[in-house]
Amino acid sequence: MEIIIQPDARAAASMAARFFTQTIRRQPSAVLGLATGSTPLPLYRELVQKRLDWSSITTFNLDEYLGIGADHPQSYHCFMQENLFRHVNIDQGNIHIPDGLAENPEEHCGQFERGIQTAGGIDLQLLGIGSDGHIGFNEPSSSLASRTRIKTLTERTRLDNARFFGGAGLVPRHVITMGIGTILDSRKVVLLATGDHKADAVAGAVEGPVSAMNPASALQLHPHAVFCLDSAAASKLARVDYYNWVFQNKPSWQRLDED
What we know:
- It is a single chain.
- The protein is an alpha/beta fold.
- It has one domain: 3-Layer(aba) Sandwich (Rossmann fold), CATH 3.40.50.1360.
- 32% of the residues lie in helices and 16% in strands.
- The strands form 2 sheets. The protein has a 7-stranded parallel sheet. The protein has a 3-stranded antiparallel sheet with strand order 4-8-7.
- The two termini are 24 Å apart.
């Protein structure tokens, strides 16, 4: 696990964006796993500004609300189109986001999982982290071996997302999400976290025990997981000096490409 701490949210997002820029430039046909929410917005804006070639890129999104369609303003289909896809030259046929109106949601989950496998697996997966440690919509107590499936949101997550819907009562109770096992199958994972409200979850994920009660802690088991944090999100880590020293002294062959 690599911990990269930047002074502020913008710098943390820019650092995370460098991993995606490098992957797209080096692997023109890469398969990317993408996330939604307010945290990755600066990352997506930076990727758009770089005018990269997305023509052969394939994407799979982590999750979607169950019961709302792609044209709903708070759907993740709408989010991704508005904030990334309509600004880059991606083939719309290469975009995969769970269908919140699937006629048979359980069957759709299996199809989505098989779609990832057919594409050759995810090369680089972007994650955020919830204030309770959830990744995707894998709430605390989720199986660390779980695959794409239907989940019930906790009230805490619904409250966290209430601002997008105009009230907690309007937030759907169920979602389709990649499982933790699905996420761990990705060849590389970049988790972006900013703000002091994420500090407890980050500390538990990085320095606490591996536990289903903090789903992000499962990333300790991943062979190539990177946490890109701002100083606020890193504020409760015990070994900040060590993480900074490691990053500053990386060998040349491990360094990210310069823009």
